[in-house]
Amino acid sequence: MEFQNRKEPSLSEIDVAHHLHPFANTKEYREQGVRVITGGDGVYVIDSSGRRYLDAFAGLWCVNVGYGRREIADAVHAQMISLAYYNTFFGTTTEPTARLAERIVKLAGPDMSHVFFTNSGSEANDTWLRMARLYWTSKGMPNRKIVISRQNSYHGSTIAGASLGGMRHMHEQGDLPIPGIVHIGQPYWYAEGGGLMPDQFGILRARELEEKILELGPENVAAFVAEPVQGTGGVIVPPETYWPEILRICRKYDILLAVDEVITGFGRTGSWFGYQHYGLRPDFCSVAKGLSSGYQPIAAVIVSGRVADAMAHEGGVFQHGFTYSGHPCAAAAALANLNILEREDLVGKIQRDLGPYFAKALHSLNDLAIVGETQAIGLLGSVQLVLDKNKRLRFSKPSDIGMIVRNFCMERDLIVRASQDRILLAPAFVITHEQIDTIIATLRAVLIEIV
Ligand code: PLP
User: Fold this and answer.
1) What CATH number did the domain enclosing 196 receive?
2) Where are the transmembrane segments (predicted)?
3) Range of the domain at 194
4) pLDDT by residue (tens digit) across 401-415?
5) What gap in Å lies between CA 257 and CA 42, rounded to an integer?
6) Is 415 in the pocket of ligand 1 (CB under 6 A)?
7) C-alpha separations of 198 from 102, 235, 242, 310, 356 in Å
8) Is residue 11 part of a domain?
9) What's the CA-to-centroid distance between 262 and ligand 1, angstroms?
């Protein structure tokens, strides 16, 4: 009978029939299907065919304490049973929400005093943008509205997040950026250094901020935003001179500094926050991924005392918030995640041991002709692919070479990410030396095979 012979659709078929994926070419997905990931354990994930992959990208730079942490699941379970949800809008809070805010502020250091919770990094960036404008209005300077960001930065996918971001392909699709957001150059020395030494280039790129402020008029500028280390743009570690000069300029013109630490926050660089690594004193710090290691969707803006005080004294109602701001179950997951990070001293281990080991292993790839440069900070790394190393000639289709390397790695059971012609690595903090060696040996084999 016909219906007995009908084959049940696979999960991949069901998925592509009904699920629209983020940043995906839907036509390609329909033709090629998707891989169904069914399990995770430490730094490994398993797909529906039982194949095991070493995930050198921690999901999406987020599963920092590794997969399969029962302690976090138990904390969320217990919270769901006692109080699954309550809002934080009308003069109420919940225990995990309050405790998490206190805990984050302690880690963030003395300048930071408050936390505003959101569900995603994009929303965190939307949030501080509105807060920065409210701050200046409360200070009697309502014209200070413009935010300066950087080309090739990534700050999320909401309309404001994508506008703050400097990704041209995102702007082109959405008539972006929205008014009031402008972009300056990025500190991408390898590709844009133009023969300068890294330190000279770092100063030059930072001074673009000063030029832009003067062009716009300091009285119209609210804030400057950047990732301490550009992530999605290619794990671009700025020259040493870059951040001190940016800091000097922000102070000189009294511009608020917003750091987007959605990737770098909670230990990835070997410091709790990237701004601590670079000695910055931001007014806003967006965090997400590493806050709960991806076990629950939760994000936040950490806010400086001066901004929080201005809001308390002169700001009136902040007309902004999300139903799930400070969701108790997500907050419980984040607290359990922070317990693990602290108890196992995972950030200290990156600083003392894993970071230097990872950097040395990654830099060993520099002997290959296809590798233009490697960059590493903490457990964040990138490999710049080049057509001609001596001439610094890049591939004519940078995204193609990146995808080829990524796909070859996948065939060898290694998950990495490509951003144009840079291969990005961000393994979980529980990675071992041996597993780092496997990542680098696999990458080496792939890079040798494709040339
Ligand atoms: N900011 C940075 C630096 C990010 O890397 C990301 C996501 O990768 C975001 C913001 C957006 O976060 P979300 O995807 O949670 O909205």
Assistant:
1) 3.40.640.10
2) none
3) 71-343
4) 999 999 999 999 999
5) 36
6) no
7) 39, 16, 9, 39, 21
8) no
9) 6
